[in-house]
Amino acid sequence: MSYLTMSSNSVTIIPHGGADEDDVTVGGTEFYPGHSVDHFRQAMRVGSTIPDDRVKTALIDAVLKTLDDLKPLKDKYADFTALDDVAADVMDGASILVHRYRAAVYNEAKASL
């Protein structure tokens, strides 16, 4: 992430640290995984013009809405400690249930932004 400043005759780009230093995970529960702000920004093409605090709030609100929608799923798998523990097909190294959960949260958060 970088910030751009402009004066009458010049443009200055001020670096804002690397992704690893600044990345924050939000919205995790004991059962459902959290969400990387940087991964969300990259996956959903959310630029740095939207402040991190606004992105975090959108992700948390999206998690809360999605958890309400998925209450029957959590009840069905009450014997499991995490969504990743539920037997499911795996795609790109993660459970398809985790992929679908992340997609629901990301799409809801992006819509609210």
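That was protein one. Protein two is written in the same sequence-then-structure order:
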Amino acid sequence: MGRKKQPVYRLVIMEHATRRDGRPVEQVGYYNPLTKESSFQVEKIQKWLNVGVKPTKTVLYLLKKAQIIE
């Protein structure tokens, strides 16, 4: 998302078998690296983590920074 030289990233839940640019299962937040602004739907993230979803290294860092997980 975003514009040229102004990126904004969505935090989404993807199935393992889908292609990289495929349709996400659910969008659970976003992150703007320029302003360091982020918004996460904590209840949905906790639900998916309890089901067994494994976050990427970058997402794990963002969730720890937001104190959603330890």
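The first helix runs from residue 42 to 51. Keep this in mind for the problem set.
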